[in-house]
Design brief:
It is a single chain. The chain has about 350 residues and is α+β, with helices and mostly antiparallel strands. About 15% of the residues lie in helices and about 35% in strands. The strands form seven sheets. An eight-stranded antiparallel beta barrel has the order 10-11-12-13-14-15-16-17. Strands 21-20-18-23 form a four-stranded antiparallel beta sheet, with no helix packed on it. The protein has a three-stranded antiparallel beta sheet with strand order 1-8-6. Strand 2 and strand 3 form a beta hairpin. The radius of gyration is 24 Å and the shape is globular.
């Protein structure tokens, strides 16, 4: 009878892991760390902090307390969508999706919840028009920065080209992994309006003609602009987009709005051809320490066979063979330190 309940509280744990990649840990410097007001945040990190492989992946605990469970869910979801953690992969998008999912809101969360809701595990942040708005926030933040810093050709129209019938073409990638690419072409009609085309631009066919142009056309008004914020009207809808250019060599622009946040980087204009390598094989997914080696040179392994185990962020990562292969070189031993992308075991594919 001495125990008194007052309302409901929900806590989420923000971790440096990518749920869509099997909860793979992510290391590196945090370039931006902002948790929205209205909730409690227990953390020991800030912008500039480095997440290392020596410790676990916990970044912050975010707690919402409201009179009802539904109220706690709403306030926590709103706070996470208005929060930004940039510079490495986190489970922030996954948490946002969970807090908007019907079964979770209703309290139907058995231990099979993730198996039954694979879509929340694969969540990649805002979608549809909100995702497009964040992309254009990055595009026009870069355009604004380029124009204001140009002391030589600032007199020329933005994206100036010899051929006036063509706009400025750019390709932008999303996130740290950069596996999602968006092609953008924009033409500045004047200082406050732009025409934007989204999608792959027409390519030359075998007979020399261009393929059909199926890009989406958008009309954009540039209402208010600064180095920290872009207020854009896209096809009549207004978006307030907070922007931050990364201070590191990543070249990323972090963009956030009431719908969530994403990080973008401009893809290289020209392809960089990697040197041909005689050997192939799995690489380390993140910095860590080798704690087990299961193969030797000359050994034949089947697809899915465990080759090596790397420990990082208090987790064990099994390194497996992608195809039936023969081991030609084992590059590390138990106790060795490995970095992200280092070839661990050289394999020769066996047909």
């Amino acid at each position: 009878s001495d125990v008194v309940f007052t309302g409901h509280a929900i806590e989420v744990r923000v971790v440096a892991e990518d749920p869509s990649a099997g909860w793979l840990g992510s290391t590196g410097a945090i370039e931006q760390f902002e948790i929205a007001s209205g909730v409690r945040c227990d953390t020991g990190v800030r912008a500039g902090s480095v997440i290392s492989p020596e410790y676990d992946s916990l970044i912050a605990k975010v707690i919402s307390h409201r009179p009802t469970r539904a109220g706690a869910v709403r306030s926590l979801g709103r706070a996470l969508r208005n929060s930004t953690i940039a510079g490495l992969e986190t489970n922030l998008h996954c948490l946002e999706a969970i807090l908007a999912e019907g079964d979770f809101v209703a309290g139907r969360t058995p231990t099979s919840y993730f198996d039954d809701h694979l879509d929340v595990v694969a969540a990649k942040g805002p979608s549809g028009s909100d995702r497009v708005a964040l992309l254009l926030g990055a595009v026009f933040a870069a355009e604004f920065s380029d124009r204001t810093s140009d002391q030589v050709t600032g007199f020329a129209p933005s994206g100036w080209r010899n051929l006036r019938t063509r706009g400025q073409r750019q390709s932008w990638s999303v996130g740290v992994d950069r596996d999602e690419i968006h092609d953008v072409e924009y033409t500045m009609l004047d200082g406050s309006t732009a025409q934007v085309l989204l999608g792959p631009w027409p390519q030359a066919t075998n007979d020399g003609s261009l393929s059909s142009d199926e890009r989406r056309e958008l009309s954009v008004r540039l209402i208010e602009r600064s180095t920290e914020q872009q207020t854009l009207e896209i096809d009549g809808l207004r978006y307030v987009l907070r922007t931050l250019a990364a201070s590191s060599a990543s070249g990323m622009i972090h963009v956030s709005s009431a719908s969530g946040s994403l990080s973008f980087s401009r893809a290289a204009r020209f392809a960089e051809h990697e040197l041909d390598r005689a050997e192939g094989g799995p690489v380390s997914p993140l910095p860590g320490t080798v704690i087990a080696v299961h193969v030797a040179v000359g050994q034949s392994v089947a697809e899915g066979a465990v080759l090596m185990v790397v420990e990082a962020m208090k987790m064990e990562h099994k390194i497996v063979a992608a195809r039936s292969s023969k081991v030609t070189e084992v590059r590390f031993s138990i106790g060795d330190r490995v970095d992200t992308g280092e070839l661990l075991v050289a394999l020769e594919i066996q047909e």
